[in-house]
Amino acid sequence: MISARSLVLSALIVFPLLLFVGVAAVAIWQSGEYGWIWWLLPGCGVTALVVSRLWPPTPLADRAAHRLSEPHHWTPRDREAAQIVREYQKRVDSYSADELTDPQFYLRQVQSLALDLAQRYHPKAADPLERLTVPEVLAAVRLAVDDLERWMLSSVPGSRMLTIRHWQMLQSAPRWIQRLWDTTWAASILLNPASIVRYIASKWTWDPVTEQLQSELLAVVYLQFIRQVGFYLIEMNSGRLRGGADTYRATFGAEGRIAVGNRDRPSPLPVEAPSISIALVGQVSSGKSSLVNLLTGESQASVDILPETREVRRYRCELGDPPVTITLLDTPGYGESGASRQQVAQIHLALTAADAALLVMDAHSPAREADRLTLEQLHSIGASQPHLKPPSVVGVLTHVDLLPPPLEWSPPYHWRQPDGPKSQNLHDAVQYVTELFGRVLATVVPVCSVDRSDRTWGIAEELIPALIGTLDDARSVALLRAYEAHMDRDRWKLLAQQIARSGRQLLLTWIEERLSPQDLPSS
Questions:
Q1: Alpha-carbon Rg of the chain, whole angstroms?
Q2: Is there a contact between 223 and 92 (Cβ–Cβ < 8 Å)?
Q3: Engineered SS bond to 139: which of 241, 350, 410, 426, CB 3.0-4.6 Å?
């Protein structure tokens, strides 16, 4: 959108113009009492110039870099593709006014951006665009045009009267504005030669300010255009538009509409809103079972076993306010040398079904190789499914009561700003794990989850807030997985229905042609 700075400068320019229109020039000169009004134009011009110098503009490209929405459901591949869109936005300063008012220029930009994004998603394809389906392309065009139309109607003054001719006139706006002022000032100087001083002051101040405003107006439209088109080109290449625009909108709701000023209420989902699953992984005796008991509020038997596994048990708990039901997937513990082949298979299935994960680690054990292998496995799962969003992983350091000095236990501990030996060791343990795995862990929290009430600490203070902080991300992981499953479900049934529908339509058309009135026998 146009910046506050430009609005202020525009007001300083437009205000005296409106006043001059409202006050008859003849009355000004005849009465001789309104001579001060003629100083308003250069006065506002000087003020505008001073404001423009003291209030430097934020570079348009820098402002554009922060405006491309990155919704929760985007995958790492989508975020990398967004960088391509930002690079196109950053080129805005290199384009002339003639280019920014040429419809063909925008068409060429769309074609170039579409090709660059398609190559990012299909780098090995000879022609990456040929992999797109016709419904995906139509949905992207419809969604982008729909959002641009809403933005234009809601955010561009006078847009209902703006024609293509008016838009193209913007490239020469400073020239025709300058002719208008020159004519006005010529008449003024003829009537009063002293006005030449005011004319010089106005020309010195107005020209640079009006050129800045013209450039920003054209650039804002270009940035918004690239933003909207780039967003839906990413959604198109990701495969999320293959079900059509209506299904996409209904699933992703407000996140699927990025027009400025829009306040759409989320539509009903075409897929059942999925519950959130959190997998607990860790070595043997790392404290996973104790964590499950504390999170569920009691020692309880599992609800059931994850389908296709023999060891991954599911539990139910509630988090947040209002409470959200969470499914905990307790995976088999692995040894210091890593998981066995069977355990790897069980953990893999759990992580594939999980929307977030807890990597549970014994704080006083320095062995981290097995945990590193587990994180690599999680990364490989995400790499094999680039169309899905990988779950966030929270590192949980348990058994912190055993950190030296082991006999000291008087929580709470202010480990972020250590004030004693115990809190210092807590800080160092978290720092060590963060340095090892910080790139792949959303956060690391210390807890003590032994089955003794006098030794339980960090669950409510550290772990639950960390889990609540990942709920939005986990919801997007679950929603995207459910959406992809919905798109792949009953594809052959849908194909059969389409064939039957088209065949029925062809039959009706043939009957209508064969039994047209001119072919019917006369009675």
A1: 33
A2: yes
A3: 241
Residues 6+ apart with CB under 8 A from 212: 6, 9, 52, 57
In 265-302, which positions are buried (b, 16+ CB within 10 angstroms) versus exposed (e)?
eeeebbbeebebbbbbbbbeebbbbbbbebbbeeeeeb
At residue 258, the pLDDT reads 44
283 CB-near residues (< 8 Å, 6+ apart): 333, 334, 335, 336, 360, 361, 362, 365, 367, 370, 371
Rounded to 5 degrees, what are φ and ψ at 283? -75, 165
Distances (CA, A) of 398 to 237, 345, 363, 451, 463: 42, 25, 5, 12, 11
What phi-psi label fits residue 249: left (phi over 0), alpha (psi between -120 and 50 degrees) or beta?
alpha
What's the pLDDT score for residue 126? 87
Question: Is the confidence at residue 100, as pLDDT, over 70?
Answer: yes
**pTM score, whole prediction:** 0.69
Q: What is the pLDDT of residue 425?
A: 93
C-alpha dist (Å) from residue 77 to 67, 104, 120, 383, 474: 18, 30, 9, 10, 18
Which amino acid is located at 254 in the chain?
Answer: A
Strand, coil or helix: 67: coil
d(CA 44, CA 350): 68
Contact (Cβ atoms closer than 8 angstroms) between residue 392 and residue 356: yes
The SS3 assignment for 293 reads helix
Nearest CA-CA partner of 470 in 347, 322, 342, 358: 358
CA distances from 400 to 138, 191, 364, 419, 492 (A): 56, 89, 7, 16, 55
Residues 492-510: tens digit of each pLDDT: 776 677 677 777 776 776 6
Per domain, the residue ranges of the chain are 59-256, 276-481, 490-516
Taking residues 446-461, what's their average pLDDT? 82
Average pLDDT, the chain: 76
Exposed, middle or buried, 512 (CB in 10 Å: 0-12/13-18/19+)?
exposed
Residue with tokens 């869109």: 85
Give CATH superfamily name and number for 276-481: P-loop containing nucleotide triphosphate hydrolases (3.40.50.300)
Mapped to the 3 state alphabet, what secondary structure does 378-435 carry?
Answer: HHHHHHHCCCCCCCEEEEEEECHHHCCCCCCCCCCCCCCCCCCHHHHHHHHHHHHHHH
The pLDDT assigned to 82 comes to: 93
